[in-house]
Amino acid sequence: MGENAGAHVQLLGPVTLLDGARAVSIGGPGVKGLLALLALKVGKVVPLEEIIDALWGHDPPATARTIVQGNVSHLRRVLRDMGGHPVAEILTSPPGYQLAVDPERIDVHRAKALLDRAVLEPSEQASTLLGEALALWRGPALAGVPDSVRAPELDDLRLAVHGARVDADLELGRHNELIVELSPLVRADPLAERTAGQLMRALYYAGRRGDALELYRTVSRATLRTLGVEPGGDLRWLHERVLNDDLDVAVPEAAAPVKAPSQLPAAVPSLAGREAELAWLDGLAETGESTVAVVSGTAGVGKSALVVWWAHRAAARFPDGVLFASLHGFDPRHAPIEPAELLTQFLLGLGVATGEVPEQLHERVALYRSLIAGRRMLVLLDDARSAEQVRPLLPPGSRSMTVVTSRSKLEGLAVSNAARLRVLGTLAPDDAVRVIEELAGPADFDLNHALARLCGYLPLALRIAGARLSASPQWTAQDLVDELDNERTRLAALEVDGAGDDGVRAAFDVSFRGLPPDLARLLLQLGVLPARRVGPHLAAAVGAMPVDRARRALRTLAAHNLLTEIARDVFAPHDLVRLYLRELASSELDSAAVVLVRAVRFYQAASDTARRRMLRIVDPLDLTDLLPPAALPDLLTFDEAQDWFEAEWSNLLAVLDAAYDAALYRDVWRLARVSHTYRVVCPLLGEWTRLVDLGLAAAEASGEILGQCWMLISRCAIALTFELPNACPVDAERALDLATELGDKRAVTVANIHLGSMLSLLSRHDEAISRLLEAVAETERTGDLELRGQALNNCAETEKRAGRFEEAVAHELASLAIDRSLGNDSYAVVSLNNLADLAQRLGDPVMASRYAWEGIDLAQGRGFVLHEAILRVTLARILRASPETARLAREQYALAAALYGRVNPGQVPEIQAEAAELD
Predict the structure, then answer these.
(1) In which residue ranges does the UniProt entry place its DNA-binding region annotation (predicted)?
(2) Residue 914: enclosing H or E segment and its boundaries?
């Protein structure tokens, strides 16, 4: 098979998937938009929320998640169907999807690679490579995708490629051809100054000096009329050279410094990973225009190492020199350097004699700018504390590039100087292992990967770990892994002996100590939380502040790179920062217990609000008023409530554990009770069992009979939902006794419903029916529709087990009608499954299939994984009855097994064995 066989993706024109040279039909704009989003970020995870935002903007349909998941499945099938071994696949990588393919198979990335190669080649070869890159454009980029999918960087890329190719052709003397090519471009957009300048050069070198001057006047009039300013410095300089007929002079003589400085410090021997960041810096350097780049990131992430290593590689692109200064913005051993001192350093580097350096700051700025105006220089400003510290050092010309590193994002530079911002993250696992092995040599694969993970893939921590192994041969990787594995000693293990200021803790401390007091206190309060991620509402609750203020505070902390915004309004610290904050909070925060109570109360109020959106609940345990509505997230619909529970579930369980350890037993069982509804609707055996067992233990520890009663009923619900083989009625009987003792009639009815259902599992059908009909009658007297629907459904289940199918259908239809009237979809899918099974048993496969498919559609739309699995097994049993549909039955069994694998893996072998009977 040729190397060009298999999948190729074209984005520079109509979005197209190719199999070799053959276009493959993949569907409409939505599928093409999905492919484009994954291909633009090839090799990276594109979050599902980002995909939905890109495809639908701020108004996605309720089924957006399902649509995207279906389109992903469709694209996977298309890629799998390509001949031979697939060269591209779509991976599921939470929180989204990742396209795994060689970037050379995507035209955008091939164009970038050709641009990078051309930089290092002579003009002839560069022109050829850039012409090849331009040929990849087949029209407007991303044609055929939804209008909301945008990638303006593709237009920038085309301009960069075209501009570089024209520069190469100018050097080759192809002036007449360029005049023909560039003239219509400038007429169409006279504000495109780079293109106008290239055309001026071509005209001048072709002997048409008068036309070059007239072109400048045309551009100048257009710029003044449209923007109200003169053309930029480069074009004005070029005009002056043409006017004076001395264009062969490379730069203005007044701008020529005495010498070209070369101030770069030594670079690390090799740089692990960072290919994307290096490509980003290369792309900015290639524009040939004045650029300010800010590389920010948390302490120890390797910002300085990256930019210095890149600068050594890119220095040849800046023939007029490289200036470097460490601004000591976050250096524990030095105060931040003032701009006046830095300007002195730069002026001396540019050849100004010591005695000629002006005393006044504004005079130094003026001299500095006059010396480097018009030069092609690189200025590196390392470890800046603020935008104000940087601004006086920015070159004024249009040909220099400035790269700034900082622990803060310096967003002010983006506003005032159009700076390009890049946040540097931690290393990929394999690259992190390379850092350790560069210092300590190769070792056991699993141990080194464990070591890298415990270092949080943070370069500073990785270098310390590697240095410890290298300097102490008696220490093995296993010893260090064991030491780091204890969260309470991990930071101490990442200190540098004899150099406390160089450790991980010290690096974080400098960032923390520079915060305003209110932000520092909030960060310490977040350090108390066992939660790994936090949003504005949780932060507002623990910080006792309005939500808007908490949101601003979180974004400010993210701007300081002490938190990372991992999704919209979702923030998380690096794992080592989390340990640092927890350690610091234990010694410096006087209200740790209060913070935990506030977190528990927030989750109680939010969970109770969410469960009442998911099910029509009549429950005297009402915790929604623990916080005012403005302090809670907007949970107005089923989908919003379900999404909130899904996003917060790991946090909720962690807070429950912490509250139990803190002996907040009453709060624990109450939170377990109100959050239990989520697992009723979206069952997951292990987590549901853990939640209920913890709630029951807390209720018993607090001695509260009501809590014990409801937690026992919840445990029965688990046994019934999963039809656990060891289920027995003891929990239901005990719950009934407790409810009777309390005199709580509704709790008695609920306990009777669950007891009857448990008896049904033991084939004690008549006894079960008697209890369930008694419950039905009680709910008719009280008008409790929610419980009546449950009782009727359980009656139907029991009648079915007893072989009384007609009676079961009547009960189930009545239950389904109630569920639909209440909007209780999680109960409705159970009724639809039972009706499908009953219709099959009564000899009506058509009606059975109709009920099954209706249930599957509802389960898919709501994300009910367990219910969908059960329905697909039911559908498979319906389909297997006919030889003509046996193949479809196998497909349903396979889908059911995959779904069961997510919620109750113990059920999978039974499903697979049943499917094997078809063979």
Answers:
(1) 1-101
(2) helix 908-916
